[in-house]
Predict the structure of Cohesin subunit SA.
Amino acid sequence: MSELDDTGDGKTKKKRGRPGRPPAPSKKPRKSPSEKGPMGVQRGRKANGMAQQNGEGDPVTLFEVVKQGKSAMQSVVDDWIESYRQDRDLALLDLINFFIQCSGCKGTVRIEMFRNMQNAEIIRKMTEEFDEDSGDYPLTISGPLWKKFRYNFCEFICVLIRQCQYSIIYDEYMMDTVISLLTGLSDSQVRAFRHTSTLAAMKLMTALVNVALNLSINQDNTQRQYEAERNKMAGKRANEKLELLLQRRKELQENQDEIENMMNSIFKGIFVHRYRDAIAEIRAICIEEIGVWMKMYSDAFLNDSYLKYVGWTLHDRQGEVRLKCLKALQNLYTNRELFPKLELFTNRFKDRIVSMTLDKEYDVAVEAIRLVTLILQGSEDALSNEDCENVYHLVYSAHRPVAVAAGEFLHRKLFSRHDPQAEEALAKRRGRSSPNGNLIRMLVLFFLESELHEHAAYLVDSLWESSQELLKDWECMTELLLEEPVQGEEVLLDRQESALIELTVCTIRQAAEAHPPVGRGTGKRVLTAKERKMQIDDKNKLTEHFIMALPMLLSKYQTDAEKVANLLQIPQYFDLDVYSAGRMEKHLEALLKQIKFVVEKHTDTEVLEACSKTYCILCSEEYTIMNRVDIAHSQLIDELADRFSHSVEELLQAGEEADDDDIYNVLSTLKRLTAFHNAHDLTRWDLFGNCYRLLRTGIEQGSMPEQIAVQALQCSHYSILWQLVKITEGAPSKAFMLLCDLLMIFSHQLTTGSREGLQPLVFNPDSTLQNELLNFILDHVFIDQDDENQSMEGDEEDEANKIEALHKRRNLLAAFSKLIIYDIVDMPAAADIFKHYMKYYNDYGDIIKETLSKTRQTDKILCAKTLILSLQQLFNELIQDQGPNLDRTSSHVSGIKELARRFALTFGLDQIKTREAVATLHKDGIEFAFKYQNPKGPEYPPPNLAFLEVLCEFSSKLLRQDKKTVHSYLENFMTEQMMERREDIWLPLISYRNSLLTGGDEDRMSITSGSSSSKGGSIRSKKVSSHGLFCVWCRGSAEESVEGSWMIRNDTLQTPGALQTPQLTSTVLRENPRQAAEHLSEQNSEPGSESDYVHKRGLMEDDAEPIFEDVMMSSRGQLEDMSEEFEDTMVIDLPPSRNRRERAELRPDFFDSAAMIEDESVRL
């Protein structure tokens, strides 16, 4: 039992009172009753509202002073102590209210409550005034200000106890009140009270432990002084000094008893309850602080009575708490002098600690491994072999911090030299330059025994930080591989040599690249200057060594495919300038000679590809050795190509009588050439011709061996690819057209018509490829004529050249638009095309209109979203150019509004048919306008508010009742201040609101020709007026539930695939779009005719709709106005199909709250 557990016999110690209870009768009074007054029976009170005077004379509470953190905590505490000496009730009231305010409570303990109410009553009163639903409280709010406040909060408590340790804490008033208050708050049901009081109590306990430690030290010093004085001779002994020392020792003992009594009150009243609190953060606070106590005052706290709490909490459900336990134990195990006191704890909880190395929380696992490493350092016998093996395999973990921690453990256990001097002497006797031979052998054995040979890079990376000196000892590794074994030393087995070579290559890669292998980490981080310098030095070191050693290693192991394939990876990490700078060309010749021998001896694909890659690296144009290597490479290919040509002739002449030697000669040579053709352009050797002869013979005679056919196909494939590279290097436009055709051919349309077997050939371009295609169009199509003229090298600026260049650009745009129309490229990509409609109308207007038409047939809603997106992009570009304060009268703003007006006209006059799409457009436009708040404050308009002026152009396409609902949706984003503003800067909002509130009578239904169409129109009108598309949000009728299935249409956009499968013809051969448009206009010369109807049905299938829906109008002027805006407006009167009737049915409110919650905007 520790001295803290021994509560004594009550001679001089106080018994701490619980909140709301009278003081214990055995309490020893130190102050007169007049001093205690009515507070003598009130120990647990709170207050935080009492004001102090700051330097400027303004009243500031203690909470505000600590929160601001402008004054040093020492001076803050000194000011409080001074106020306590003047009026301790008011000072304590300020301190108590400080704790209340730190909990986020808005209530304040008044002086009357402090003097007349019990603790429980005060806490109940504060609880009633506490709004726990308000969210975070000061100690949990994120941000630098509140993080600093938490630090100041803890520092204030520590400094307060330190400054009061000689007098005030022993007055039986302040500490009684504070401890009783914190004890009561720690039992509160309010989380903030519990958290704040626990943190304060634990920091208070830590400060008291420090005081107790100082008292213990002073007691020991006083006792030694007393013993020394008493042992003096009677004549030299000073009796007065003895009496003073005896009196001082007695006072120190009394103070020690008082401090122990306070600590026992906090520990038993708060800690033992809160270390198992329901809130993980509170539990973590308790465990963190008890670790501090055990380390700070180990004589009193480092025993099983306190260690058991840490041990029990190792099983906590929350990783945060387990982490605090491990860190607390690490601080103890770091001090080897404390190991004897931890022996029983280690035996009891060692298994749990070892099992935590596999914790699901990586941070916890890392700290557990580090703790096990500390235990190993303190006592190697503490861990069994099984315990160590549980940690060993973690060096192969994909999580790098876990693996590095395990590598540190492995280094301490296996790779630390126990007697460096003896090992160095042994290395000298054996003629080796490095004493690490045995350690490297042990590393190889560990790697082989782990049976994870493919993870050598992971093992090296795990040991890199702890065993870097060992892993960079390439001289020792090379000596082990090249030298003959010394007598009495075990010879490296073949598998051990292979493992050592693999580990050597991995260490070279780690040193040269200076980043973890694939699968470890989140990518390459930026190296510091020190790390960069180390990387350069390591690269130079390994290059200088292996330039000389690699040819010898290849010579020794040239017949072993696995070893050679690994060794040939080394040159890619060389600093090749060393060959020239160090005059080491003879070593380069030796390397090239060995590589040639390897190529001639092996047909293994991995070895040949390694040779090919090595040649490719050495042939880099940036190095001066390129010419020398290129000559050697060309000579090798010449020999292989001649051999291949002769062997093919012999094989074809022999025909069916060809023997195994003929087949082997062709196959082995073809394998070598195929491997080199992958990385090198061998087209000048015309390998395709002989490969084609082999394939044709196999097809005609059916006697060609399968392996030869496969290799011939592979070699032909590489030859075609290299030819394609040459073709496309100077003609990006041709490459673009070819790529578009390939995407069209191998699109999802490939499987239509019962061709599901072709599904493996379907290729869907990812977002990266789609963005590259779009960027190419923006860079090469939408350019000014002047830019095009400048790019035409040597061509005269004549009409022929301009027309030809325009025709090429139109072909590019048509090819990309085709990908959008047939849902190969996502439709939102068309926004960058649509936004150029006005600027490039003369050049590409017909293509863009046709694209808009076809995309609307595919999906009206997504097409509307794309239109509004294009306008938003133009608006954002304008904001970036001109800043947030736009000139609404400028030509740029007018241009965007004019484009919006053109887009609005494309919706036609049948508002029922376009109702859903127009609603989507307004919804997205409103959300964009209010997307960002003005940084200057809510009284200023949002930066995108001017976009509402563009959105006004679409208001006429809304039905009357829809305008009201859109207006209601708009009001959800508006504040009362916005509704009242009338300044010019708010005119876009005013204009948009007016467009929604006025003009409702001008809404017209679509009028179709013929009596039947007129009847249909009247029926629709009745339905709309009786129900309306946009239901009231609060309505909960059965009608809304029935129609609710339509509500999510915007969220689950489906492409109906209304378009026919395109003919698989090259875009380059496509008919001139202008001629096609003229041909189409001739067919449409008689609108409404039978031939026109049949033609249109063929284009759009059953459910298709034209982009422009003109109607017979009573006013010829309106018709002429429409014709003036769109020259090719089509007058089509289609009979109402089943799908068209479904679209005319009533639909639920597009702006319904449920729809808004579930809406997922199309990703762009």
